[in-house]
Write a structure and sequence with these properties.
Blueprint (H helix, E strand, L loop, with lengths): L2 H5 L5 H6 L2 H9 L5 H21 L21 H8 L5 H19 L1
Length: 109
């Protein structure tokens, strides 16, 4: 894997829910602004994303992924490890795989 791919990260479903094409355009323009404006616009983008995240919970009680709290999805440790692994860097992925192997051995015994 080259260095460019190692610096990239995957977006989660939550990222897609809080993203907005206009905010993405603004993010792309930030490096070309003078430094004081970069700070202001960076904060503006994050505030907008925070407001979009908050709006996911407005109204009735709904989780960020659109699930009702009355239908919780309990996850096993193995499921959680499998969900987070695609977002890990190679070193973290190795650690997660060790934990997965430990969990498998634990279940076998």
């Amino acid at each position: 894997m080259n260095e460019k791919n190692e610096n990239q990260f995957k977006l989660t479903d939550f990222d897609y829910l809080t993203a907005d094409p206009k905010l993405q355009m603004l993010k792309a323009a930030i490096p070309y602004l003078p430094v004081p404006q970069q700070r202001i616009f960076s904060l503006l983008v994050k505030v907008q994303e925070l407001q979009r995240a908050q709006s996911l919970f407005d109204g009735e009680e709904v989780s960020a992924m659109g699930l009702s709290p009355s239908t919780p999805k309990p996850a096993t440790p193995m499921q959680l490890l499998q969900v987070i692994k695609p977002y890990a860097n190679p070193k973290e992925r190795e650690m997660i795989e060790m934990l997965e192997n430990f969990q498998i051995m634990k279940e076998v015994l």
